[in-house]
Specification:
The chain is mostly helical. The protein contains 8 helices and no strands. This is Cathepsin propeptide inhibitor domain-containing protein.
C-alpha cells in the first residue's frame, strides 16, 4: 500500500511538473505578440531608448511566473494587468512605500492603543470574516502613480465601519486626505493610517468620493466640501 501511495505521489508530481513546463514554454514570438497586445490594451508608451525592450524582458519574466503559478494546485489564479511590465521592487517602491520623516518619528510615541478590541480568553470568534460577502467593501479603486496607499487603506476601513454602523455603503474621498491631511502625512509621498484617522475625527468626518473625486495627484485642499 505504501509503495502504491508513493508511486501515485511521484506520478502526480511529474504530471504537475510537466504542466508547469508546458505552460512556461511559450515561444518568443508568442510572448512578443501578447506583449504588443498588452501595450495597446493598457496604452503604454515608452520614450526612453531601449525602454520598450527592457520592459518586454520584465513582462516575459512576469508571464513565466503567471504560467508557473496557474499550473499548480492553488486556490486562486493570477494574470496579466497594467503592472506586468514592472519588477516587484519597482512596484513596492512606487505603490507600497512611505517616507518615514522626522515629524512622524516624533509623533509615533503619541499614538496610543486602547483595550476596546483586545482579545479575551474564552471569546468565541468566527473562523473567518469576509466583509465582501457582507457588502461592506466598495469597488476596486486605483491609486495611480500617487503614493497614497495610506489614504486608500484608511478610507476602505472607514467605509466598512460606516456600513457596519449605518447599513449604508458609501464610497468616500481619498483625495480629501491627499489634499488636506498634511500635518503629518505627505500626500503622494506616503503617510500613515493613524494620522489619517486623527484627521477624519478632527475634521468631523470625510467627504464622499462623488463630491471630492480622486485625481491621483496632490491638489489644493478645498475645505468648503
Amino acid at each position: 500500500m505504501a509503495s502504491i501511495t508513493i508511486t501515485s505521489l511521484i506520478f502526480f508530481s511529474l504530471i504537475t511538473l510537466s504542466l508547469a513546463l508546458d505552460m512556461s514554454m511559450r515561444s518568443n514570438k508568442e510572448v512578443m505578440t501578447m506583449y504588443e497586445e498588452w501595450l495597446v490594451k493598457h496604452q503604454k508608451v515608452y520614450n526612453g531608448l531601449g525602454e520598450k525592450d527592457k520592459r518586454f524582458e520584465i513582462f516575459k519574466d512576469n508571464l513565466g511566473f503567471i504560467d508557473e503559478h496557474n499550473a499548480q494546485n492553488y486556490t486562486y489564479k493570477v494574470g496579466l494587468n497594467k503592472f506586468s511590465d514592472m519588477t516587484n521592487e519597482e512596484y513596492r517602491d512606487m505603490y507600497l512605500g512611505t517616507r518615514n520623516d522626522a515629524k512622524r518619528r516624533v509623533m509615533k510615541n503619541k499614538i496610543t492603543t486602547g483595550h476596546r478590541y483586545a482579545y479575551s480568553s474564552g471569546d468565541r470568534l468566527p473562523v473567518h470574516v469576509d466583509w465582501r460577502s457582507k457588502g461592506a467593501v466598495t469597488h476596486i479603486k486605483d491609486q495611480g502613480n500617487c503614493g497614497s496607499c495610506w489614504a486608500f487603506s484608511t478610507i476602505a476601513t472607514v467605509e466598512a465601519i460606516n456600513k457596519i454602523v449605518t447599513g449604508k455603503l458609501v464610497s468616500l474621498s481619498e483625495q480629501e486626505l491627499v489634499d488636506c491631511d498634511r500635518a503629518y502625512n505627505e500626500g503622494c509621498n506616503g503617510g500613515l493610517m493613524d494620522y489619517a484617522f486623527e484627521f477624519i475625527i478632527g475634521n468631523g468626518g470625510i467627504d464622499t468620493d462623488q463630491d471630492y473625486p480622486y485625481k491621483g495627484f496632490e491638489g489644493r485642499c478645498d475645505p468648503s466640501r
